[in-house]
Amino acid sequence: MAIVTPPAIVILGRGALATARRVQALYAGAQVHALQGRVEGDVAFSELGVHLRACYARGTPIVALCAAGIVIRCLAPLLANKGAEPPVLALAEDGSAVVPLLGGLTGVNVMAREIGAALAVAPAITTSGELRFGACLLDPPEGYALASLAQGKRFVSDLLAGATTRIDGHAPWLEAVDLPRDAHARHAIRVSAQAWNGNPDDLVIHPRSIVAAVGAPCEALAQSVHRALAARGLAPLALAALIAPASQMCDGALAQAATELDVPLRFVDTATPTPEAVLSALAFGADVESYAQNEGGIGLACARAPLDPLALGRARGKLTVLGLGPGRADLLTPAARAALDDATDIVGYATYVDMAGPFRADQQRHATDNREELQRARHAFAMASEGRRVAVVSSGDPGVFAMAAAVLEALEGSDDAHWHAVELAIVPGVCAALATAARVGAPLGHDFCMLSLSDNLKPWTVIEKRLLHAAQADLVMAFYNPVSRARPWQLDRALEIVRSVRAPQTRVVLGRDVGRPGETLRATTLGALRSADVDMRTMVIVGSSATRGIARGDAGEWIYTPRWYREET
Ligand code: SAH
Questions:
Q1: How far away, in angstroms, is 396 Cα from ligand 1 center?
Q2: Cα of 402 to ligand 1 centre, how many Å?
Q3: What tens digit of pLDDT does each residue of 326-351 get?
Q4: Do 527 and 457 fall into the same domain?
Q5: Does the C-beta of 481 come closer than 6 Å to ligand 1?
Q6: What are the Cobalamin synthesis G N-terminal domain coordinates in residue numbering (predicted)?
Q7: Number of folded domains that form the chain
Q8: Which ligand 1 atom is nearest residue 432's CA?
Q9: Which residues touch 548 (CB under 8 Å, ≥6 apart)?
Q10: Which of 145-149, 192-196, 280-284, 465-469 has the lowest mean pLDDT?
């Protein structure tokens, strides 16, 4: 299979950088991941094992410029459960040796050859089939699927033991492969959409060449598609896409069926799509063997070559609003990371888009400097309604004074059916108040409220009223947007209101750039707090009457608000 995800090229020191850059030049979108403090690359990491495991778990191919043994030890805990296995190679830092380690079925030897050729060294290929035939027979190119890996391994062993083979069907990628061919051989490589009949002498490879079209979603749709395929002897692995009318875009049963069938779900603007119409729109008309609609209302058509599902109709677009957390990579949730990896387009305020990167070459950044959140949300919907997968990024949590509400506001204000058909998801993040609180202890350990002191979107009188009520209710308060150049006096006025109710010794915590480089944390009191201590990158937590400090073992204090509460007398 072709390498679709560009590799992470991992280096531990300056000596490896030149070789890493040469490998990088071979793969569009590849980035050099460099050990922090030792060498500068495109992506910094602090712990090799943690980083390699994270890349591997995400399915990112790895080229590690270090000893093979180190790579093996780092990845060992993940190898027991054999799932998808990205290619992993060890490369001598001077480029003198290329060792493919893992991913025999996902192209590791292809990469080893490519890198070997670029560095003018022989790759250390150890796979017998590869050595004999010069290619991996069990890793057909994009658009083709191997019917059975177990059977494939048996077939390759037979050839290695001296059997010959013929090729039935069209297998252009095998033309250059040095196979023991014989037109009358008992063994055959069969390239066909027909299901494998169990013949142990066949290596069956299915071109993904069938489309299944449904007019209306129904219960147990995946099973119906399976039955329709089976009735014609066709292999489910030969299915390229499931096609449905665009009017059914939001139907969960369709999405479920496509997931079960493990094929893309594509939509067309006809009420009753037929596979013939879908394919003839692609000028495949002459090259298609069509089948009549079957009873379940499922139409099947089979092209003579693999189909590119992206050329069939369009996808349901997706818009995910996600929170990046305060900034540190390890405070970004795996769900948010997955949404970023899945996105075709990333939308957001430039600082946050930078924080969310780096991105692959095929991902488009739409970083804006303006603070026009609604405009940004509308742009995101416009792209998603064309079938793109858009990630809208906010710092912290997207639902806390951030983009999620703006996105929903844009949706509410629109009567465009395409916008409403977009698959919308909100992925939470660690907000600034929670990140700050955790650094100093548990000041939010009892009832608290979050207030934005910005009067850009609400009148200042409302803010004053809420501050007074919150102070009187003895809630711990987390102030977002405490000051800005355009709002110089508001914080002082806010503190005046709080001080009118709460004692000067009330605990206050200031967290600036929490979870980012240059983080500072400061504990003070309401009486001592000056607005000059605070800027727009600061989170202000004002304690309740119960918030207290205890000495830490190292230095300083833990600040917390007890879970119990005593009414003041
Ligand atoms: N959605 C964000 C808040 C955006 S409002 C969240 O959930 O955290 C912007 C305000 O959040 C800033 O003015 C500041 O008060 C606070 N803030 C955001 N990130 C911060 C950080 N890393 N450290 C301290 N305060 C932060």
A1: 7
A2: 9
A3: 998 889 999 999 999 899 999 999 99
A4: yes
A5: yes
A6: 51-129
A7: 5
A8: 8
A9: 507, 559, 560, 561, 562
A10: 280-284
Q: Which of 401, 427, 516, 519 to mutate to test the pocket of ligand 1 (most atoms within 8 A of CB)?
A: 401
| Ligand 1 centroid, distance to 178 Cα (angstroms) | 61
Residue 238 inside a domain? The answer is yes
Lowest mean pLDDT among 5-9, 130-134, 236-240, 408-412: 130-134
d(CA 146, CA 156): 13
Question: Are residues 164 and 116 both part of a single domain?
Answer: no
182 found inside a domain = yes
Q: How many CA atoms lie within 13 A of 68 on its CB side?
A: 10
- Which CATH number covers residue 383? 3.40.1010.10
pTM attached to this predicted model: 0.80
Position 298 scores a pLDDT of 87
Assess whether the C-beta atom of 401 lies below 6 angstroms from ligand 1.
Answer: yes
What atom in ligand 1 is closest to the CA of residue 326? 22
- Residue by residue, what is the 3-state secondary structure of 522-561? EEEECCCCCHHHCCCCEEEEECCCCCEEEECCCCCEEEEC
Neighbours of 220 (CB within 10 A): 14
Distance 553 CA to ligand 1 centre (A): 29
Phi, psi of 352 (to 5 degrees): -75, -35
Helices (H), 262-318: 275-280
Q: What percent of the chain has pLDDT over 90?
A: 73
Distance CA 35, CA 82 (A): 28
Q: How sure is the predictor about 136, in pLDDT bands with cuts at 50, 70 and 90? A: confident
User: Does residue 498 belong to any structural domain of this protein?
Assistant: yes
- For residues 151-170, average pLDDT: 93
Task: Name the one residue in this structure whose structure tokens are 């055959």.
Answer: 188
